[in-house]
Amino acid sequence: MSGVSLPYPPLDVVVATPRLKLRGATDEALEELVPVVREGIVRADELPFDDPISHYEESPTREWRWLRAVWMARARVEPSFWRLPLVVEVDGRVVGMQDLIAEDFRTFGVVTTFSWLAAQARGKGTGREMRAAILHLAFAGFGAREATSEAFLDNDASNAISLSLGYEDNGLNWATRRGEPCQLRRWLLPRSRWEATRRADITLSGVEECFPVFGIS
């Protein structure tokens, strides 16, 4: 539905960098991503997600649970909690998702991020670029004070991205992974550190229209 304004502002958000776009997770965009999810997001030797992420399930349960999770995220939106799911588009193809999540954002101004990327799209700097894009949306678009991230200790790619973008080590946390307890590395990016390396080549569209939806003043 390119060029057509949608009736729900979060579906109209676009974050554009020279290398990719993040855009609202419309049903049309999700339909484009279904073959990617069906093919599988994780390799046999990878365990990047905590329970109960659906990407470890067999197809077609994997696709069904993933779609339901995105639909629920789009539906549960209130000032006390919201999650903005965006698809990642590279060279006209959708290759993953990048979400922005906030709890009582009006009071704390803190966001966290979650993402996944198709296996064939990794190793090209896309993961770092999509994180930079979502951080620009959080800080420049929504006025966030801090951004946080977590990744398992052995998720070298995610932890390296956080470090390269200026996040500070913020201790450890625990989560289960396929039913087993595993430690997570916590990361924190204050606004001042983001401002120090703020990029001028990232553009935002449809952001202010989301303010009343998310309770942002």
What descriptive keywords fit this protein?
single chain; 217 residues; alpha+beta; Aminopeptidase; nine-stranded mixed beta sheet; 31% strand
Describe the 3D structure:
The protein is of the alpha+beta class and 217 residues long. The protein has a single domain, classed as Aminopeptidase (3-Layer(aba) Sandwich). It contains seven helices and nine strands, in the order ββααββαβαβαββαβα. It has helices spanning 27-39, 61-75, 105-108, 126-141, 156-164, 191-196, 211-214, and strands at 14-16, 21-24, 81-90, 93-103, 110-117, 146-152, 168-177, 180-190, 203-205. A nine-stranded mixed sheet has the order 7-8-6-5-4-3-2-1-9, with helices on both faces. A hairpin with a 4-residue loop joins β1 (14-16) and β2. α1 runs antiparallel to α2. The two termini are 29 Å apart. The model has no long low-confidence stretch (mean pLDDT 96).
